[in-house]
Structures
1.
Amino acid sequence: MNQKIRTILTGATGMVGEGVLYECLQSDLVESILIIGREPYGMTHPKLKEIIVKNINELHEIESQIIGYNACFFCLGVSSVGIKEEAFSKLTYDLTLNFAKVLCRLNPDMTFCYISGAGTDSSEKGKIMWARVKGKTENDLRKLPFKAVYNFRPGYMQPTNGLKNTLKYYHYISWMYPMLRMLFPNMVCTLAELGQAMINTVAKGFERPTFEVKEIVSQSKQKL
């Protein structure tokens, strides 16, 4: 890839999005990052711009500001705990596809990277609600005429030290990371590896559209 990465990023106020953002800010492959979100992330950096939108499903007012990007790191998501399928689908499938369709129309040469989850059900027919919804989201993203769409399915992610949006319960379980990595290598990676894998995939591509944990770890180590 001769061009530097100019990426749109969502979910920066969450743990995963912030971790991916951190890797983008450190990477020489990334030229600029545009955060789109409902709340300000609250950081200044030469690479960084930010647009606050009241409703992320309504992007028509900012379309002129989101042209010219060649990547999207879609890190926005919600937990399925305590949510019925209809509501979870609106917050996951509908929101993601609506956002992606706008970007695809404005930036057809874009590579779209979607963070899904380990155990996602590509058949869309399984018993686990969130896995079906995520599977449908993955499948329908791939139907859009982007340059490329990649779905990342992390399991446990060891957070990056020093970031402000790390979920509180990680402070109690992070000490288990070395043991978890040894016992469950196909389910455990670091948040840094996820971000690096996404960057490397935009820069270099990948032969398959889906990244399980072992592919995330492997792709994060690619030398470009």
Note: The helical segments are 15-26, 85-106, 129-141, 170-173, 177-183, 191-204, 213-220.
2.
Amino acid sequence: MINKEQKYIAWFIPAAYLFHLADEYFAGFYRWFSVIFNVNLSLNDFIIINSIGFTAAVAVATLYSLNKLNHFVIAVLSILFFVNGVVHIAASIFTASYSPGTISACLFYLPLGYLVYKKIFPLMPYQQRSISIAVGIIIQIVVAIIALNI
């Protein structure tokens, strides 16, 4: 049974995502990404990719809150967001420019990863923890490949 604290953590995921999307949108992530990687990620592409992601985050939080999903899915999403935050920081360092979204990633994604590590991971079997980390990283890679090839 999922308790109230775990439900709050689940709903922190789409809330953090929404703040991160606003940060990326207003700071022009899609333009920055296009210049840095010499691709053409349009605003429309950015909106489509993130609409799918945000819808999935809300669906996961809803189903988890209704006890229809286990801790694994929350762990995967938090790892995905944590990795995204680390990627933003690394991209800012390696490009010597601001990767739009870094501020919200530091404010929300990194603490979210830590929160899930402390509160959700201990509730999962060891193998699920390892697999959730791998799946979160793989999803981040797949989303990056999609953005690079649109």
Note: The chain is about 80% helix and 0% strand.
3.
Amino acid sequence: MAVKSLRSESSPAPSRKERAAATRARILASAYAAFVESGFQATTMPSIAERAGVAVQTVYFIFHTKTELLRAVADAAVIGVSDPQPPNLAEWYQAAVSAADPEQAVAAFVAGVASVLDRIGPLTSVLASAAALEPMIAEHLAHTEQLRVEGYLAFIRHLHRNRLLRPGLSVKVATDVLLTLLGPATYVAFTRDRGWSHNQYLRWISPTLVGLLIKDRPS
């Protein structure tokens, strides 16, 4: 009697759409590693294709140019690949704005943003150098920074509406503090330049922001 394959019984062959998504994800992961390792100018589309195990024509077919590929890599670092979600729709953001305790709200926001910074941090110098050469990247960076400002401002306004900010602390100043201390430049300065681990940064930044932004509790 013929023996059926395990694949046919328990795991059907992936669809064309699933194979395409897997190929795209593999190219993005390979491009991320190549850009971080070699920079924008030195990285080539053939080298990315070789890392990903695909034909270079496949890379060009999906992403067209190296500039568009870098932009896609940056987007994937922020919103993910398998289930892309803008930060304001992510579970961690919803947890931050729904937490009754202000310290828990800040901790949830910090943890979520820091997970993004952990992915985008290694790309910051690559994006900066590419922006000096490619207007598309410069425009993309300006757009993503504006989105970051809007997201942080929305969280600070949430704290303000619930009367959780320190007395005398304006929404603008609070937003500026959050943008600076919980930003890619500060994250990279600590985790790359000063050698802190991701968890060390988390253990420092969360209570620091609580102390700077949140009003004292009644004793």
Note: The radius of gyration is 21 Å.
